[in-house]
């Protein structure tokens, strides 16, 4: 073989090896992603389906040699609202989105926005305070990994909580003895009114209101409209318990670690982008929800400022109570509650009462 032919054969072999290496490194990735709530009425799930999933797919296709597809299972198709954390932990789901409110034991302290009711009315402002708290207290993020083998990709929330009822009411006293549904951490809000709290979930709400299991729902406008609760329960009173940043998007740690580094980086970045857009997303859906409720004939009224102030005052010790409970469970309850209250103040929002954590 002459020198020219030899050099050409070496070059061709190198090219073939290079192409083979690229092909070997490229992966076709499939991830299972899901939530207990349905896509559409639940904003945080809609943002998973309409923002997170397509954005990850787009960036992986454009920026890496890999391909990625998602098997999507929302509305409890893979895991229910109280099963998603565990399903991500054991690998049934690779990525799960869920309300922390349905993990009152495992994620007790992460429900801290519920423990300071009448907080920010604006969802973007509320998410700003929640993110500041997570950044200041790393334990909140680390617990997902240390105890549940998950990576926290991003946070999300609910829009401002109000109260819908099957019957009209004029004063807080009218709620005495009325059964009202809620997610769990928010049920103590009802003590001032003397209402009877009932633990429930969004998928159960319509039938429960229709059949009288309870006669009211602590609920934000986006879901009250989306789940059509206005049909059995047409009276919607604006109270302003606050927008709550209590939804999480997490990924199984083992699955995360198994992915190529460039794909992991994209998933982390899109997870934070999912969080960053959540406040504006919830604000838009709240406005649309209120407008939609008016259009379908729901009767919307607003609680008086005096009654609202009295309601808030009745819960003035709630943050300190929950902080001490978390402390007793070996969690940094006092630190988290103090940090969050300060973070809310830093946004410029003024609580209707002064919450003090000792």
UniProtKB/TrEMBL annotation:
Cellular compartment(s): Periplasm
Q: Which UniProt keywords apply?
A: Periplasm, Signal
Q: Does the keyword Glycoprotein apply?
A: no
Provide a GO CC annotation, any one: periplasmic space
Q: What is this protein called?
A: TRAP-type C4-dicarboxylate transport system, substrate-binding protein
Q: Which organism is it from?
A: Roseivivax lentus
Q: What lineage is on file?
A: Bacteria, Pseudomonadati, Pseudomonadota, Alphaproteobacteria, Rhodobacterales
* BP GO terms, sorted: transmembrane transport
Keyword Signal present in the record's keywords: the answer is yes
Kindly give the InterPro entries that the UniProt entry links to this protein: DctP_fam, TRAP_DctP_sf
The organism's superkingdom is given as Bacteria
Question: By its UniProt entry, which Gene3D superfamilies does this protein fall under?
Answer: Bacterial extracellular solute-binding protein, family 7
User: CDD domains given for it?
Assistant: PBP2_TRAP_DctP_like_1
Q: Which residues form the signal peptide?
A: 1-23
């Amino acid at each position: 073989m002459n020198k020219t032919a030899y050099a050409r054969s070496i070059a061709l072999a190198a090219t073939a090896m290079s192409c083979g290496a690229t092909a070997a490194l490229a992966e076709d990735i499939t991830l299972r992603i899901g939530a207990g709530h349905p896509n559409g009425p639940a904003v945080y799930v809609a943002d998973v389906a309409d923002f997170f999933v397509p954005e990850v797919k787009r960036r992986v296709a454009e920026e890496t040699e890999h391909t990625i597809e998602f098997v999507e299972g929302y509305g409890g198709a893979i895991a229910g609202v109280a099963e998603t954390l565990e399903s991500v932990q054991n690998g049934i789901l690779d990525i799960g989105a869920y309300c922390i409110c349905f993990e009152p034991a495992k994620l007790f302290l992460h429900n801290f926005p519920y423990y300071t009711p009448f907080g920010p009315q604006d969802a973007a402002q509320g998410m700003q305070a929640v993110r500041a708290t997570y950044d200041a207290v790393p334990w909140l993020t680390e617990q997902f990994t240390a105890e549940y083998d998950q990576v926290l990709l991003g946070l999300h929330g609910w829009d401002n909580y109000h109260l819908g009822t099957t019957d009209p009411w004029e004063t807080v006293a009218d709620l005495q003895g009325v059964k009202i549904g809620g997610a769990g951490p928010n049920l103590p809000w009802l003590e001032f009114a003397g209402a009877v709290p009932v633990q429930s979930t969004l998928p159960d709400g319509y039938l429960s209101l229709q059949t009288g299991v309870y006669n009211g729902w602590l609920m934000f406008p986006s879901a009250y409209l989306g789940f059509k609760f206005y049909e059995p329960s047409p009276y919607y009173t604006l109270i302003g318990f606050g927008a709550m940043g209590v939804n999480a998007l997490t990924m199984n740690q083992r699955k995360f670690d198994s992915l190529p580094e460039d794909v992991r980086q994209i998933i982390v970045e899109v997870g934070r982008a999912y969080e960053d857009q959540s406040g504006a997303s919830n604000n838009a859906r709240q406005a649309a929800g209120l407008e939609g409720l008016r259009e379908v004939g729901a009767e919307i009224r607003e609680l008086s400022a005096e009654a609202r102030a009295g309601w808030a005052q009745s819960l003035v010790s709630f943050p300190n109570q929950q902080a001490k409970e978390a402390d007793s469970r070996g969690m940094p309850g006092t630190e988290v509650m103090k940090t969050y209250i300060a973070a809310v103040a830093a946004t410029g929002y003024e609580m209707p009462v002064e919450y003090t954590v000792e």
